[in-house]
Design brief:
Number of helices: 10
Distance between the termini: 42 Å
Number of strands: 0
Largest sheet: none
Structural class: mainly alpha
């Protein structure tokens, strides 16, 4: 993804009223044409600004996608936090965090469109992408606790674990409809096939 200097830390920067008009125009274009087919010209026209003005605020189309994406992901993160009991161990917390994030994100039209756009989704999984850097920061304290407690297998790199979890969240969002609304089945699959391979003691999941 195109990443400007102000976006490298994953923070949502202040873009002012004109920047907000551009983002709003971009949202409408993405909803109408899809992310891949939308052009900067489309966004400028929808926002009522010139093409050079768009580039004054954003490095390119994918920079706008990043800006919107971070805002939507922050909303999801807050909803997920409200559903998770922080006293849970690594396996339980990770399982519940993945289940909750997938269920919450599935109700977000923008995130669903983001996931369904194969180019954008693939780019977001690159280790250098701002999404992966943000994910590593959000999971950092959980990984450190899991390492300290001996729950996380010693041969695993926390950054690779976060990448694994992120890829599985995207995959689960794509196939969520196949679970037919069965949250317990989703939870079992996440626990058994995503989380347990990360553990030192790979026990049989409770029923």
């Amino acid at each position: 993804m195109d990443v400007s200097e102000s976006r490298q830390d994953g923070a949502i920067r202040d873009i002012g009223k004109t920047g907000a008009k551009i983002v709003d125009g971009a949202r409408r274009c993405f909803e109408r044409y899809g992310i891949e087919k939308t052009t900067i010209e489309d966004i400028a026209k929808a926002a009522g600004v010139s093409r050079p003005t768009v580039y004054k605020f954003f490095a390119g189309k994918m920079d706008i996608v990043d800006h919107i994406g971070f805002g939507e992901l922050d909303k999801i993160q807050e909803l997920v936090r409200a559903r998770i009991k922080r006293e849970l161990g690594f396996a339980d917390m990770t399982t519940e965090a993945i289940v909750a994030s997938v269920l919450v994100a599935s109700g977000n039209p923008y995130i669903r469109r983001f996931v369904e756009d194969l180019e954008v989704s693939a780019q977001s999984q690159l280790p250098t992408s701002p999404y992966q850097r943000q994910a590593r920061r959000r999971w950092e304290s959980v990984m450190k606790r899991a390492q300290a407690s001996g729950e996380l297998a010693a041969d695993l790199d926390p950054a690779e674990v976060v990448s694994w979890l992120s890829r599985n969240q995207v995959m689960l969002l794509r196939v969520l409809d196949q679970f037919g609304g069965d949250e317990e089945k989703l939870r079992h699959m996440v626990r058994r096939f995503v989380v347990e391979p990360l553990l030192v003691n790979r026990s049989t999941p409770s029923s």
